[in-house]
Amino acid sequence: MLPAWIVLKLYDKKIKNRRSPLNIDLLRSPGESLQEQIDDVNNDILSNLLMLPVIPVFTYSIALSNYFLSTSKTSLFQIAIYSIFIMTSTIYFCHSIYKLLNKRNLLKLGMECEVAVGQDLQNLIQYKFKVYNDFQAKKFNIDHIVIGPTGVFAIETKGRSKFVKHEKNNWKLEFDGQKLIFHSWFETEPVEQALRQANWLKNWLREATAENINVTPVLAIPGWYITRKAKSKLLIYNGKNSTFLANGNVVLSDKQIQTISFQIEKECRNISAKSYKKMAQPAN
């Protein structure tokens, strides 16, 4: 512990006399929340991995202490207790690691899909659109918000992996206006979530801007061939060629775009510098 404490103190001494050159917070990137969750899961995996050798060593130390300090010999019952404890602990931590690895992979899939969609949305900038990612509400986040002449769009991205088997059909997806129909399952929650979040954003913008601004819900499912079987107020696409959002009637003026973007950016620009502390702003 002492060497670690010394290293941390030396590191702290090195960085405390320096400041970050950045004097503003950064905008949130696509998948920012998921990356934070991945970091937490990585820490949990590391903790569980460290416990795997610790438990046997700890148990062996107790058994060895009892052997040398106790006046009686170690019984078969005690040996059985030690063995059962080691086995159950090992099984528990291995099972936890397995679950955490699966969870991390799902989070990685979601993050990669959000990054892919977020990068494609940058193509809308040439059409006078503003693009924001990972907008934080109280109990949820909106993956992407784009604001332009044709309106405000709240985009929810869902990453869905494909099975190796049934290759001919596992890349197809049907949308009947209410649910997503995959090859061997269907989902309604992504549709409901996208509609719910767009409605929430509409109410939030009304309070923030004092204007009644419509928000169009959009669902992006990267990598799937999507067939639309019914009309819906929800737009759905496969995460590519997002410039279709620029097609349509102009409903927002430049001033409205600026006002809405200002409010959204205030919420999305909240990533502080992590290398060094920010330089204090000089007093006026």
TrEMBL record:
Domain NERD: 109-228
Membrane-traversing stretches: 49-69, 75-98
PROSITE patterns assigned: NERD
InterPro entries assigned: NERD (IPR011528)
Keywords of this entry: Membrane, Transmembrane, Transmembrane helix
The protein's name in its UniProt record: NERD domain-containing protein
Organism name: hydrothermal vent metagenome
